[in-house]
TrEMBL record:
Coiled coil: none annotated. Residues 29-195 form the Methyltransferase small domain. It comes from Paenibacillus elgii. One of its GO terms (biological process) is methylation. One of its GO terms (molecular function) is S-adenosylmethionine-dependent methyltransferase activity. Keywords: Methyltransferase, Transferase. This is 16S rRNA methyltransferase. Pfam families: MTS. The keyword Methyltransferase applies.
Length: 198
């Protein structure tokens, strides 16, 4: 089996470089590398999630599967008086995310290596954001939804981006079994943005 970006320690040779992206009207420079998700540029689904997510300025936010950091760092700018915790299983992604927080002068973040939400299950968040690791399989994606429900404050929201062809309808059904209110807030180029309120 070939190695995927959700491997804890990618063995693929490094290919470190920077990319520039504009997210929510702010320009960012990101370090990226081989062995991480969407290394050539921020993927369309993540951009759509960043553009659609609604966060208060004081929000306490969790980004699950943060990769090199585009969603979490954009969320930290939006929740400028709050904080963002970013988690990923991939240690290479975590190192990149830390460098990218520093490079873009974003201080209201903490970045942790974690298998899904294992390292933050004792904490509470106002919002959870995820572009879930589809290639890790449906069971893993559904575990993200269950663990997010556990860490969300009452009334808090999970924001998910998922492609229709990669299981958006079954993800929606799973979310409806867990959350009090589920809605598809955006649909674009085959991607769904789903908001699930606890």
């Amino acid at each position: 089996m070939s190695e995927h970006y959700y491997t804890p320690r990618p063995s693929v040779e490094h290919d470190l470089h920077t990319i520039e992206e504009t997210l929510r009207g702010r320009s960012f420079v990101f370090w990226t590398d081989a062995g991480v998700f969407s290394k050539k540029g921020v993927d369309y689904g993540s951009k759509l999630l960043v553009q659609t997510m609604e966060l208060s300025k004081q929000a306490k936010v969790l980004d699950v599967g943060c990769g090199y950091g585009p969603i979490g760092l954009a969320a930290a700018v939006a929740a400028e008086q709050g904080s963002v915790t970013m988690v990923d299983i991939n240690e290479r992604a975590i190192e990149l995310a830390k460098r990218n927080a520093e490079r873009n002068r974003i201080a209201n973040v903490r970045i942790l290596q974690s298998d899904l939400l294992a390292e933050v299950m004792d904490q509470t968040f106002d919002a959870v954001l995820t572009n879930p690791p589809i290639r890790a399989g449906k069971e893993t994606v559904h575990r993200v939804f269950e663990q997010a429900h556990h860490v969300l404050a009452p009334g808090g929201a999970l924001w998910v981006v998922i492609q229709k062809k990669q299981g958006a309808p079954s993800a929606y059904a799973k979310l409806e079994s867990l959350y009090s209110q589920v809605e598809e807030v955006e649909r674009n180029k085959g991607y769904w943005i789903i908001k699930a309120v606890k």
